[in-house]
Amino acid sequence: SAINFLERLCLTWMFFFMMCVAERTYKQRFLFAKLFSHITSARKARKYEIPHFRLKKVENIKIWLSLRSYLKRRGPQRSVDVVVSSIFLLALSIAFICCAQVLKGHKTFLNAAYNWEFLIWEAALLLFLLRLASLGSETNKKYSSISILLTEQINLYLKMEKKPNKKEQLSLVNNVLKLSTKLLKELDTPFRLYGLTMNPLIYNITRVVILSAVSGVISDLLGFNIRV
């Protein structure tokens, strides 16, 4: 019993240590994204003591896109995504086991000690996933903020009225901004769950397996068939 307890303790510590590392990485990504979103604002750039430039030239837009690409690739990527996917798979597996146990006998579900252990693990994993999902969602909003490009386009239109002699040059910059807006929309991966990059296989398993299990539990508890 003592060896079993020590093994569980060590494995639990290692697993939660990896989750803390993943959370720290997500916090760093959010910080980079937050500072990146302030580059084109003079007031916020002055407040956070970071460089400032406007997207009124093609060279500036090129630098802005290159900096965005560099910051998104900065830090560990694949290892953190593997940790997050493992957490999600473990939470999904525990949820599936709990649903199967409830379908087997919901009145005696809480009588078994291992079911309580499953519920504690599921609650802890869901808290971490919610935290990571919140950070990932905010990070994506900062990087995929189309409002920055739209604001720069409005500024260009206003500048065209003030300086008609530079209309051709400003029109070229405006066209590049429009293409950049379309590019940012195309770069967003479809396999995202509140900011967490999901493997297509995991994404499809989530849609099919867990929704079917939840549908079965709800149907068993309410007494009639429900399809989720």
TrEMBL record:
Designated name of the protein: PHTF1 factor
GO CC, sorted alphabetically, is: endoplasmic reticulum
Instruction: Tell me the keywords, alphabetical order.
Output: Membrane, Transmembrane, Transmembrane helix
| Transmembrane feature ranges | 6-26, 82-103, 115-133
